[in-house]
Write a structure and sequence with these properties.
By secondary structure, the protein is mainly α. The protein has 7 helices and 4 strands. The protein has a single domain, classed as f41 fragment of flagellin, N-terminal domain (Up-down Bundle), CATH 1.20.1330.10. The two termini are 37 Å apart.
């Protein structure tokens, strides 16, 4: 019974954390979509240098907001999106020449995931890493940072083919990053669904255990022992079933 209570505590804690991460990543994805809108506007061929500069400022602001979101710390002060490295911000702005302008972004985390045990023999990831969807080189952030500065250059020529090529490249990079980000968001949802099923199963088992223990005083030891043994067998079968469920995804089912 104490093991089930610990599993349930782990599930509750992990579910809360995963839900928070999902909310944050939804916000990051919305920022990516807003950036994409800016890029399409920048590529329409009717912009002046001033309008490109304005779009560049907006892209810069949205990029910084994504970095801030991915440097989120939980209630214990741990950085969530750095893999298993949680004592430093996963993403840092690099200012090579000390002029106060970000030259690039660097990833300080790793690609590993923290895990917790949620039932007998079943462990689940309790976080996703920024490198899962943005890559360890942070291509999308660095592409957008570079382009935002290019668009804010007072000497930018909106008709320059290189400028238009850089904008289109940024659109492609954003699309890839958004696809990868959506995959990570989906994985968070799948893990939460698995834990919900396990939680329901363990709640049923815990309730049955409580009822059995409460009725032991009214039973002969022999029958009670047989009943409890049967319950243990049922519990193990249930947890093995959900262990297999946790390994399934859409592609393994098809």
């Amino acid at each position: 019974q104490s093991a089930i209570e610990q599993y349930q505590s782990n599930i509750d804690s992990a579910s809360a954390g995963l839900s928070q991460q999902e909310s944050i990543l939804d916000g990051v994805n919305n920022s990516l979509l807003a950036v994409r809108d800016d890029l399409l506007e920048a590529a329409n061929g009717t912009n002046t240098a001033d309008s490109l500069a304005s779009l560049g400022q907006d892209i810069e602001s949205l990029t910084e907001s994504m970095v801030a979101a991915l440097n989120y710390q939980d209630e214990d002060g741990h950085y969530v999106f750095g893999g298993t490295i949680n004592d430093q911000p996963p993403i840092v702005a690099v200012d090579d020449d000390g002029d106060g302008v970000t030259d690039s972004y660097s990833y300080q985390g790793n690609s590993d995931h923290r895990q917790t045990t949620v039932s007998n023999g079943v462990e689940v990831d309790t976080n996703v890493a920024a490198s899962d969807f943005f890559g360890s080189n942070l291509d999308v952030l660095n592409t957008l940072n570079s382009l935002s500065q290019e668009l804010q250059d007072p000497n930018v020529d909106p008709a320059d083919p290189q400028v238009q090529s850089d904008i289109q490249n940024a659109v492609d990079v954003v699309d890839t990053a958004s696809d990868d980000l959506n995959a990570s968001i989906a994985s968070l949802g799948e893990t939460q669904n698995t834990m919900s099923m396990l939680s329901d199963a363990q709640t049923d088992i815990s309730t049955s255990n409580d009822e059995l223990i409460g009725s032991l005083q009214d039973l002969d030891y022999g029958p009670a022992s047989i009943t409890f043994t049967g319950l243990e067998v049922a519990m193990e079968a249930t947890l093995k079933t959900y262990s297999k469920v946790s390994e399934l995804n859409l592609f393994s089912v098809l």
